Amino acid sequence: MKELTALFLGDVVGQSGVRALFAGLGDLIKKQRADFVAVNGENAQAGFGITPELALTFFSLGVNVITSGNHIWQKKEILPFLESREDILRPANYPAKAPGKGSTVVTVRGIPVGVINLQGRQDLPAINCPFQTGREVVRKMREQTRIILVDFHAEAPEEKEALGLYLDGSVSAVLGTHTHVQTSDDRILPKGSAYITDLGMCGPRDSVIGSHTGQAIQRALTQMPLKIEVSENQGRLSGVVIRMDGETGRPLEFRRI
């Protein structure tokens, strides 16, 4: 039986997250024996968006696919990059006229690996339905591969859990991003898909979801619309490791890091 091990990391936040990737990703890939690496990069450039230069840096470090979310549009220079590349995604449920692609299939060790990027609608922009879009993209992707990893970039835990159960059995994993705090509900769902509400972030450990602690506390105390800056404290990497059957796509092992 062919097996494939995927490493999927949460949102990279600012320079702290980028430095953490530089310092730790290579060793992490070796330690986990990862064949495939994906990372959400939408907050990499000072907390908002990503540039082509940063994306290329991620690829040079061993990342196979970059996913994103609502902040992917922050840096205008990324738009033509989204159009020209297959390995950096924006959520698939944006309207078709939006630049870029919402899914991709890459081959590693002779095994095709599918990645789908979706975005939630609760407390986020009202775009197309992630459930209907997700089901349709999965249906088409299963003609190419049974290993399918879904990054669901969403705010509400109930929306994330609902999508996980909706796609259960048709994908290898539904992995939540966006809220930057790793949840401890990693599990295998009843029909065999791996699920976690949020992967956490690759960024400053001593922060408020990546932001400067003092500024975030002052904003909460005063309720004023104070500008929040990304913290530059020491970073750490957060995500999951998934070992899967290369033919069926079923997770054999699933754990947080």
User: Which strands sit side by side, in order, in the main sheet?
Assistant: 5-6-7-8-10-9
Number of helices: 6
Largest pleated sheet = 6 strands, mixed
CATH superfamily: Metallo-dependent phosphatases
Q: State which percent range the strand residues make up.
A: 25-35%
CATH topology: Purple Acid Phosphatase, chain A, domain 2
**Coarse morphology:** globular
Share of residues in helices = 25-40%
Total strands: the figure is: 14
CA radius of gyration is: 17 Å
Count up the domains. Answer: 1
Category from helices, strands and their pairing? alpha/beta
Which blocks of ≥5 consecutive residues have pLDDT under 50? Answer: none
N-to-C SSE string, H for helix and E for strand: EEHEHEHEEHEHEEEEHEEE
CATH architectural arrangement: 4-Layer Sandwich
What does this structure look like?
With 257 residues, this protein is an alpha/beta fold. The protein has a single domain (3-256), classed as Purple Acid Phosphatase, chain A, domain 2, CATH 3.60.21.10. Helix content is 26%, strand content 26%. It has 6 helices and 14 strands. It has helices at 14-32, 52-60, 79-84, 130-141, 157-167, 213-222, and strands at 3-9, 11-12, 36-40, 65-67, 103-108, 111-119, 148-153, 173-177, 187-188, 194-196, 201-204, 235-236, 239-245, 251-256. The strands form 3 sheets. Strands 5-6-7-8-10-9 form a 6-stranded mixed β-sheet, with helices on one face. Helix 4 (130-141) links the parallel strand 6 and strand 7. The longest helix is centred in the first third of the chain and has 19 residues, at 14-32. The radius of gyration is 17 Å and the shape is globular. The mean pLDDT is 96.
